[in-house]
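User: I've been trying to design a sequence by hand for this structure and keep getting stuck. Would you show me what you'd pick, starting by listing the structure so we're on the same page?

Assistant: Good idea, let's start from the same input. This is the structure you sent:
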């Protein structure tokens, strides 16, 4: 168990130290299901991009707010990338139907997209503006994060920017 914790810590520190995926920087391109890319959203509308895992209880707790954003009358796209090995599109479609989620989601079984975004934990959220710039990054789960995510995504849709500059308290992350 200690070895696993140390590996997770090293991965987390490595992703933070590299500094390639930062607020204010360009969002890395992603490709899911060989057809959806970041370019599908650039110039169109802001994007709330969530990296999730159906096996992570912390990530599952944050899916209802994604549905809330999907259902809101906002000029905002929502996409959840399920970064989990051995979870194909059929499994994901079944999970979405069972939970009555209607927001777009796609599998990332090779973790290629999660690696590009330097995601060390699920859930991790990126708020990306119309130009493809990362406006804010939230990591983890909890009531404070849920409220901040809704507030920041609404601000991004309405104002084109996120004024928050500091992370919010979280209860946990996987």
């Amino acid at each position: 168990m200690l070895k696993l914790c140390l590996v997770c810590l090293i991965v987390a520190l490595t992703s933070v130290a590299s500094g390639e995926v930062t607020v204010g920087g360009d969002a890395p391109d992603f490709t899911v299901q060989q057809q959806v890319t970041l370019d599908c959203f650039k110039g169109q509308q802001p994007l709330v991009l969530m990296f999730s895992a159906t096996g992570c209880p912390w990530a599952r707790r944050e899916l209802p707010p994604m549905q809330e954003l999907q259902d809101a009358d906002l000029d905002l796209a929502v996409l959840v990338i399920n970064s989990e090995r051995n979870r194909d599109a059929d499994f994901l479609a079944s999970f979405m139907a069972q939970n009555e989620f209607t927001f777009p989601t796609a599998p990332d079984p090779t973790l290629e997209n999660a690696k590009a975004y330097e995601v060390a934990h699920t859930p991790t959220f990126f708020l990306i503006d119309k130009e493809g710039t990362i406006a804010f990054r939230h990591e983890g789960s909890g009531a404070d994060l849920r409220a901040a995510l809704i507030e920041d995504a609404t601000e991004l849709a309405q104002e084109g920017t996120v004024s928050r500059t500091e992370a919010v308290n979280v209860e946990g992350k996987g």
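That's my pick for every position. To get oriented when you compare it with your attempt: The chain has one domain: 2-159. The first strand starts at residue 31 and ends at 32.
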